[in-house]
Amino acid sequence: xxxxxxxxxxxxxxxxxxxxxxxxxxxxxxxxxxxxxxxxxxxxxxxxxxxxxxxxxxxxxxxxxxxxxxxxxxxxxxxxxxxxxxxxxxxxxxxxxxxxxxxxxxxxxxxxxxxxxxxxxxxxxxxxxxxxxxxxxxxxxxxxxx
Length: 146
Fold this sequence. Notes:
Blueprint: E1 7-12, E2 21-23, E3 26-28, H1 35-45, E4 75-80, E5 88-90, E6 103-107, E7 112-117, E8 134-139
Antiparallel strand pairs: 1-4, 2-3, 4-5, 6-7, 7-8
């Protein structure tokens, strides 16, 4: 069960294999001190943060369209735990504390991709490691960072 009211943000990556991002002419790799804040700034710059009012409530679903999400550009995914800009997890595990995996890709068999998200640090004792705190399904779009 999800412990928080989470938000998602999408950010363009310069290198879809490593997750490197470029902000203001500087490159940041997952694990760099400014990686998560740079990824969040890119999401803000491109208006790619989900609206809190559009997120589904517990055991509900929602269809969210981000008009600025360009399918020809590779993106990473950020989880904003409880909507906090200071509590972020990336789909690129190396960016997370201790390299924790917070996103699990789940094949659906129907031409789409689903991510299961854990909203507590997956390596912490508090985490139930069920990756069902938020389920995100994409159709017709390839996301990187899995």
